[in-house]
Amino acid sequence: MNTKGNPVRGRINAYFFKIMEGYMHRKYGKTKKDLFDSLPEVVVELGPGVGPNLRYYKKGTKLIAIEPNPHMHVLLRRNAEYYGIELDLRVSGAEVLDLPDSSVEAIVCTLVLCTVNDPLKTLSEIKRVLKPGGVFAFLEHVAAEEKSALAFLQKKIHRFWHWFFEGCNLNRDTAKTLEEAGFRTLVLDKYSMNTIFLPIVPHISGKAFR
């Protein structure tokens, strides 16, 4: 999870993701609505970026936003005001959350586990912070099947993709990492999502319970 962001790429990415909000809503909206259904009044989100998920939260939700990239903050605050979300913005990284043990009922992250430096440590922090019975809702792009044409493409463009999107990994087996994380219950779907971003067709989404 990029903790500072390149001053040029960071700003480009912030406005790029803002411009793409409508498209991403059309592609991911139904999945996100299902994932975020019945969330409590206080939610922690890892890597909210400019705030594309805010439209799916109930108005008045208190969102503890873990967003270390400062170039996202201005647009994130604007989105929070627009959607009526109470924003508690924090700049810690996902691997070391600035939250007490067993303190929250719900944590959300979408298209973020691809960017953290240590996914397993991040999931361990999520488990630490969640109350017993708490839920972690996730949606992620993942590595293509080995030896497939898409896996070849992911490998070929990974260096540029990782550089431009400031740490995004195309070829992470996040499903396997989630299975290894030791959640009490894991509900996980694997599917293809056809988007204009060909390298990120394979996806997973679901919920993990502490």
TrEMBL record:
One of its GO terms (molecular function) is S-adenosylmethionine-dependent methyltransferase activity. Residues 45-138 form the Methyltransferase type domain. SUPFAM superfamilies: S-adenosyl-L-methionine-dependent methyltransferases. InterPro entries: Methyltransf_11, SAM-dependent_MTases_sf, Thiol_S-MT. GO terms for biological process: methylation. Keywords: Methyltransferase, Transferase. Gene3D superfamilies: Vaccinia Virus protein VP39. Pfam families: Methyltransf_11. This is Class I SAM-dependent methyltransferase. It comes from Leptospira gomenensis.
